[in-house]
Amino acid sequence: MFACLGFFALKPWMQQWFAGNAKTVMIPEDEQAAEDSEKNQEGKEDPALDAESYEEMTAGLNERVKEARKSIVSVSSVSEKADWDGEMTGILQSVTGVIAGDNGREFLIIADSSICTGASAWRVTISDGKSFDAALKKVDNNRKIAVFGIGKHVVDEDDSGLIKVAVLGNSKKVAQGDAVIALGNIMSYGVVSASNYKATFFDGECAVIATDIPAEEQGTGMLFNMDGEVVGMISSSVWNDTGKNVVNAYGISDLKPIIELLINGKSVPYIGIYGTTVTEQLAEEHKMPSGIYVADVDPDSPAMAAGIQIGDIICEASGEEIKDIAAYQNIVIGSSVGET
């Protein structure tokens, strides 16, 4: 009896310390674009739009949502000394996150980094309402992405079936008119209204998926396609000054290299240049070299320390020619922190 009690008392500790080294988490690259959709649709008839087919479609959507919810979590900042509003729970703020990796020791969660401001402790709540202490692993303040970890040793076997690592899909295949599902502090179906916009950060840019789904103020979450894959990260920072209260999301494909670095505990290389591509037309009209035009420089950055100024045009980095902002971004991300 004492041996059994001792075993169960020490089990979480043993699982934590003897779990082995953390494995490197690889984010699969996007597959090549499928063949022309018109060819894929040859010989197919349009489905009948009757009550039975509507019920089947609704049941299928609900099943996808049920599975997708297993990868959706709530990340909350907590305080031992909560204010009056948070006296009962200690919860100060919460955002939606998604389980993006499993390194053998921890489930790794990506979420909006706004949850990190002024906080020193966090908890993650899974789909059945159970909460676990979470550790902040890495933050990219440039793109507002944070990674949290919860030890697998604290997750009961009964809860393991309710936790699922999400599949990060190919947001470059998302097109106007595609059906999508928004999950987070909202749960709604909708369609993509546009997928050809860009949001610009220091050292890069990211595609933006615009939808017709009504959004909550300061809402966060994930955008899923009909295959249950994450195609977008919903953040309140996406076009928050447009005045339109609809869900917009950063395309997950452009964030994959950043996410892979962060969930493996690596810092994201940063130079601090806000640039725009010098197109061939601009280069010819204004007699400018091709590259990226420096529109702004972060005052506290390696770029400023190196003497890069607004108005400069960067044509080459690390011996590689730069033709657009995407090429520059790939060079920066492919570098190591501390490398010249």
Count every beta strand, where a strand is a DSSP E run of 2 or more residues: 17
Structural class designation: alpha+beta
**Helicity range of the residues?**
10-25%
Distance between the termini: 62 Å
Poorly predicted runs of 5 or more residues: 34-41, 84-88
Mean pLDDT: 84
- C-alpha geometry: globular
Biggest β-sheet: count, sense, barrel?
Answer: 6 strands, antiparallel, barrel
- Share of residues in strands: 25-35%
What are the secondary-structure elements, in order, as H or E? HHHEEEEEEHEEEEEEHEHEHEEEH
For the biggest β-sheet, the strand order reads 1-2-3-6-5-4
Radius of gyration: 23 Å
Number of helices: 8
Topology:
Blueprint lengths: L1 H16 L19 H4 L10 H19 L2 E7 L12 E12 L3 E7 L9 E4 L5 E10 L4 E7 L5 H4 L18 E6 L2 E15 L2 E11 L6 E4 L5 E5 L11 E6 H12 L9 E6 L1 H6 L5 E7 L4 H4 L7 E2 L1 E2 L2 E2 L3 H9 L7
Antiparallel strand pairs: 1-2, 1-4, 2-3, 3-6, 4-5, 5-6, 7-8, 7-10, 8-9, 9-12, 10-11, 11-12, 13-14, 14-15, 16-17
Descriptive labels:
alpha+beta
Describe the structure.
The chain is α+β, with helices and mostly antiparallel strands and 340 residues long. 22% of the residues lie in helices and 33% in strands. The chain contains eight helices and 17 strands. It has helices spanning 2-17, 37-40, 51-69, 157-160, 252-263, 280-285, 302-305, 325-333; strands at residues 72-78, 91-102, 106-112, 122-125, 131-140, 145-151, 179-184, 187-201, 204-214, 221-224, 230-234, 246-251, 273-278, 291-297, 313-314, 316-317, 320-321. A six-stranded antiparallel β-barrel has the order 1-2-3-6-5-4. The model is unreliable at 34-41 and 84-88 (pLDDT under 50).
